[in-house]
Predict the 3D structure of the following.
Amino acid sequence: MPELRKDLFTDNWVIIAEGRDGRPIDYSQGTVPANDPADCPFEPGHESMTPPEIDAIRPSASKNADDWQVRVVPNKFSALSPQEPRSVPVKQGLFQRMNGTGSHEVVIESPAHSRRLSDFSPEQVERVLRIFQRRLRTLLGDERFQFVQIFRNEGREAGASLVHPHSQILALPFLPISFRDRLQASRKYYAQKQRCILCDVLEQELEKDERVISAGDSFVVLAPYAPRHPYELWIVPRQHRHDLRDLGEPERLDLAERIPETLRKLDDTLVNPPFNLLVRTAPTPNHHSEHPSYLEDLSEHFHWYLEVIPRIKRTAGLELATETHINTIAPETAAQTLRNGTT
Amino acid sequence: MPELRKDLFTDNWVIIAEGRDGRPIDYSQGTVPANDPADCPFEPGHESMTPPEIDAIRPSASKNADDWQVRVVPNKFSALSPQEPRSVPVKQGLFQRMNGTGSHEVVIESPAHSRRLSDFSPEQVERVLRIFQRRLRTLLGDERFQFVQIFRNEGREAGASLVHPHSQILALPFLPISFRDRLQASRKYYAQKQRCILCDVLEQELEKDERVISAGDSFVVLAPYAPRHPYELWIVPRQHRHDLRDLGEPERLDLAERIPETLRKLDDTLVNPPFNLLVRTAPTPNHHSEHPSYLEDLSEHFHWYLEVIPRIKRTAGLELATETHINTIAPETAAQTLRNGTT
């Protein structure tokens, strides 16, 4: 049974999720991706190798049939437990713990065993986005959860343990501190200017045009001013909206083209890098017992977007100790290189 | 010239330090450690391959001679610039930047080309610790700097780019936000109880004896209650002291034995894992223009210690997005395994 423990020294919650065997040797080499489709639990026809399906998009109406286009299942090695009641912190001497209540889901994004997201058709990306929205609606509606993180690991260096294209969704019973810091920053800006910070940044970036990689009707792709990672990119919706749930079909179709197109630019420049894709979307203020000011006016001050982080530098001691990152590629250089294509 | 940029969305400073050429292809495979001593800039006799020496311990008095036992030099690829005046934030539209003023030093820890820290003699570790203390005294005395981080990357997965044993010291002109959070937590505890949080945790851990790996006269090695990483270990001084500078010779000698002994336990259990060693020591309150409450009573509420983080799990999208870590080894399991030795 997974458990949440509070780090007294930083106020962060940590998820402790022990496997059934704790043999340390298993962890020394990392997880090796299964490259053989015959063993892959995400192949069509292998539906029985996963826990029971949560959601899917398929032409037929028959659940668990092998004609799905996108499929959502519980993570077989779930870090959190969805069957538990709401987590309540309990004292353990000086420490605090709570039940690891939450949802840990896998979105199997394609029937194809081995395909980079950059090679997806826009139609397929659109289906994945639609599923993200559906899961967000359900999970943000569950009063046990305060926060939902959708993310994607592509490549072993980015943390992927299976090669079959998939993303993950975690619903957490707490708001992570680093996200609280984000909300505090955007709320502070809003309190001063009555404007959204990302709307203003977007306007400034489009005007200066130093860090913009592409600007479409609904989405702008840019290298942020203070990126932690080389070639970090943001895909930002022009229209202010605090979360992904209400994105309509025309914008979803536009985003579905924009994502693989942007990733192809990274592929060309960085030679198919491992990367993480992060969905930055608002939490649910109404499931909190307290109501801190950063949860007020959330729909006004927070602006959802996507973050793409190529994993071409290693996290070393400085980053672990201080969260201070050294980035050897200025975003202006990254934007120029990606705009021009490979030289 | 390196530059510091503020991430508006999190309030973190990021170090932008572009190399002379921005060829992205260089970064796609990471940095390959130079394994040939003939090319290694840290070998005795290769003193001219490094920038001019900052400090050293050697039997002779002649600077730059090849009989050094520990040697400190500026990082050849420095992320910060030590020749600049104090950094002052400057507005750039909505953004903020400042000069990358700071010190980025390398401590060459041994004349031996390839030796894990676990194989160091206590005498050699004692010299390294003495040099850490000397550099801390100088750098914390420089009014341009607000924070000093000493860290060590061993193994490529931990971020090491050269195999020759070395650690790094960064003096920063700002206090990283994650460290501010630590100080806020310890100050809050102190304000309530008039006691140091780590002193109290140490007492509780020694009493419960579930997570203690070894307890010597001056230092206790333990697996923390809420570790972010599998087999994360802390080496905590029993005597309350807010920073490493004033550690006396008897305790330094004890620590010098404790460090390689502890690392050998990790080597046995995890088969010579890559790891980071982090020094958690107090910043300098008097170089701040503002005086927030977490810098008050610093010598009372902050307790220095060492953190050892084996790098046997990959940082994936969840950790990047939320700083929320999933740890598959409970600290009780880690402590028990390390106490018992390899099975």
In short: Chain A touches chain B through 91 residues (CB under 8 Å).
